[in-house]
Design a protein that fits this description.
The protein is an alpha+beta fold and 155 residues long. It contains 5 helices and 7 strands. The chain has one domain: 3-Layer(aba) Sandwich (Trna Endonuclease, Chain: A, domain 1).
């Protein structure tokens, strides 16, 4: 399966997860570091609109990466969609850049030559990395909480 197909499957999986969380989804027309925008219009006396940009990394198996270029995008969520070839086994993890950087530091990736060039990636997550990612595993409830916390609203 080629990388474009994996990206399409990952994006569709991510859209499905966001819709199941009762969030709305917009797809930017141009690729400028944001793959999707998750948003919600809050029903209240005065309507509030909350939106967060998402950069998706899809993988047929499991992969995790961090690129320093994403630090510049305010409120960005990095979504890692694993196992897109087998939807029944797929998992999604969602982190802010800061949360992902904390994991990179804990894994000592920020001390590598690769990180000095601005990025680090692995296609073989260790048990330690998987353990660090576990709190960021997404479900409909987790997606709503993540979007609310990143956008500083109460859903």
């Amino acid at each position: 399966m080629d990388t474009q197909t994996i990206e399409i499957l990952g994006r569709n999986r991510l859209i499905e997860e966001l819709l199941m969380a009762e969030l709305e989804v917009a797809i930017p027309q141009r690729d400028r570091g944001i793959d999707l925008i998750a948003y919600v219009e809050l029903a209240s006396v005065t309507s509030t609109f909350a939106a967060v940009p998402i950069q998706m990394k899809a993988s047929s198996m499991r992969a995790f990466s961090l690129d320093s270029k994403y630090a510049r995008i305010s409120n960005l969520i990095l979504a890692f969609v694993w196992g897109v070839r087998a939807p029944e086994h797929s998992q999604t993890f969602a982190l802010t850049y800061s949360e992902a950087l904390d994991i990179a530091k804990a894994m000592k990736w920020t001390e590598t030559a690769s990180w000095r060039e601005g990025k680090y990636s692995t296609s073989s997550p260790t048990p330690e990395l998987c353990s660090l990612l576990e709190p960021f595993k997404m479900s409909p409830v987790a997606w709503r909480k993540k979007v609310a916390s990143v956008s500083n609203v109460t859903l």
